Amino acid sequence: MILALTIAGDVFWILALALMASFTLAAWKRIPAGASVPVLWKGLAATRRLPRWAALLTVPTLAFLIGAWLQIESREPGLDLTGALIVLGVRATLAPLLAVLHLGRVQKALVILEAEGALGPPR
Predict the structure, then answer these.
(1) How far apart, in whole angstroms, are the C-alpha atoms of residue 39 and residue 32?
(2) Bridge partners of 41?
(3) Does position 19 have pLDDT exceeding 90, yes or no?
(4) Mean pLDDT, residues 94-121 taken together
(5) pTM
(6) Across the strands, what pairs with 36?
(7) Would you give the DSSP letter of residue 80?
(8) Which of 1, 55, 69, 95 counts the highest number of beta carbons within 10 A?
(9) Model confidence over 68-85: pLDDT tens digits?
């Protein structure tokens, strides 16, 4: 039973990371190589920018590291059913939250870059 719960948690993280990778790839193709991508903004005015790689890969990398840590924790030898359910709840909550966070940040950055005329055509 505990193994099934850890596998269910893995599925949440795999889906979340796949969604984040898809968003990142789509945005990567539209943003020119030398463009600075907004990461903080007030309305449609960017207040902080980062290079494309840093802006698009920070949240997925952080999500991967958190997911790996939670995967290790979910396979702890002394974990009982209650602990496994708690870890599953944490994993099932954090995975979609990080995916939605990344989607929102990428979408807002694309809107700002589109308004500035700095985006390439969709591919």
Answers:
(1) 16
(2) 46
(3) yes
(4) 92
(5) 0.86
(6) 51
(7) -
(8) 95
(9) 998 888 888 888 888 888
Tell me how far apart the alpha carbons of residues 91 and 97 are, in angstroms, rounded to a whole number: 10
> Which of 29, 23, 8, 15 is CA-nearest to residue 101?
23
Question: Is residue 15 a contact partner of residue 102, using CB atoms and an 8 Å limit?
Answer: no
Distances in whole angstroms, Cα of residue 63 to Cα of each of 41, 46, 91, 93: 22, 24, 11, 12
The pLDDT, as a whole number, for residue 43 is: 83
Least Cα distance to 56 among 90, 87, 31, 79 occurs for: 31
Contact 57, 69 (CB under 8 A): no
DSSP 43-78: TTEEEEEEEHHHHHHHHHHHHHHHHHHHHHHHT-TT
